[in-house]
Each structure stands twice: as structure tokens, then as C-alpha cells.
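subagent[fold] <- orchestrator: predict structure for attached chain, return C-alpha cells only, no commentary.
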Amino acid sequence: MRIQSAKTYLVSSVLAVLIGATILLTFSGLQKRQQAALATQNKLVASQEINTVAANIQTLLNVSMQYADFFNMLIENDPDLEQQEIDTFAQAILERNDLIDNVSLAPKGIVEYIHPLEGNEAAIGHNLLADPERRDHILKTIEIEGSVAQGPVLAVQGGWKIFNRRAVFVGEGANREFWGLSTITLDFGKILQAFDLEPEKDGYLYGMRVKKADGHNDFFWGHSDLFDEDTDAIIETIGLPGEQWELAIYPVTGWDSGYTDFEKTNIGSGVKSHH
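subagent[fold] -> orchestrator:
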């Protein structure tokens, strides 16, 4: 009887362990699946957030940069346009768009006119074609006879700026020649303020990258580590003429932050989850 009782106890103990292990594995698998579902949900929310921010920045930049084409048209029609007329048009543009820092003209690639002049005096005489941090972008706009954006880069007069330059050509047929550049300059800081962008906000980390912004080096803002290969950040692109910005987002506490249904049940019953 004692042997039979011992066997019964042993079998019962083994079954209890197996049942317990099965239940534990079942709940563990369920929890992992719910955590994966939570991460997917969090990624969807973050993706919608970064997509909205990027789309709004894209729209505002497009509207702001188109004025370079406007000055291109003016100069094509009248290469000897009086400065007073240029001042009138430039001032009207600045009053219509808060992101625009200045408007400049560079005959043969040398800045001779900038509005407003105050605070931008250092830019006068800047030979863009002789500047190794500008030259490649200038040659590209001449080659395509269109607009090419550059930035953010540090301007010679100070501050991080985005330049949208348009190569201006005058004359017809065999007499058609490169006149110079019309440039709309945007202030990077004002763009950040316009969209209330910060490196960390509302539980998210943000970062921006522009490859070879100065022709040689990448520009980074915010959390540059979000662009590391082993970081599972969501990246949205903003397309500018001849350039591309990358905007990244990642939760401060990771993608699987928050409570799964399993954890909510434990919390509701007074059981703490340890993971």
C-alpha cells in the first residue's frame, strides 16, 4: 500500500508540475503575443504622428521656396531690374512668410544683393562658386537650370539656414547665358518653432538627418542615434529640390511600453508584473 501510495503521489506531483509548466508556457506565449501586438499598435500611432509632422513641414517648405522661381522670372524678363523694385518685392515676400530669413541675388555666383541687409552684411561679396561648402550645390542648380536646396548649414553671417537657390539664365538661343542665382533663405530655428519640434516631446524622441548638407558632412539635429542601424526608429522623409531630409521618431520607453491585456488583469487583481 505504501509503495502504491508513493507511486500515486509521484505521478500526481509530476502531473501537477507538467500542468503548471503548460499553463506558465501558455500565459508566457500569450503575454509575448500581446506585447508584440502592443508594439505594433505603438508603431502605428508613432508613424501617424511623424507622417503628419513631415507632411506639414513639406507643405510649408514648398510654399516658402517657390519664391526663388518668382525672382528667376523677374530677372529673366529684366536683368537690369532696379534695386528699389527688388526691395519692394523682397519685402512683400518677407511679410507674407515668417520662415523666410532673407532674399538674395548673386550675379555670376557672387552675392551682391540681400534683403534685409541689416544683420546680413557679412554675406555681401560671398563667392558661392569658390566656397567648397556651397560649390557642388551651385554647380548642380546650374546644370539642371532649376532649384536646388541646401541645408541646414551654417551661414557666413551666422545661424543655421536652408538655402533654396535657382540658377537664372538670360538671353535666347545661342545668346542664352548664366546670369547668376536667386536665393530664398529660410531660418531652421523658425521651422522648429513653427512645429514646436523638440528632441524629446510627449513621450517621443526625435531626430533629423540631412546627408552631406554642406557638401561633405551630414547634418544632425536632436537624437542622432536614432539613425543607427540597430535602432528600430521610424523614419519619414521630406523631399526638397535636390535634397532629402530624414525625420525619425522613437518612444522614450521603447515600442512595447504600456500595458497588455494580461498585465491589466494582473494589475486589476493586485498582482504585479515583473518584466
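orchestrator: received. Logging for downstream: Residues 43-61+195-251 form one domain. Confidence is low (pLDDT under 50) at residues 259-275.
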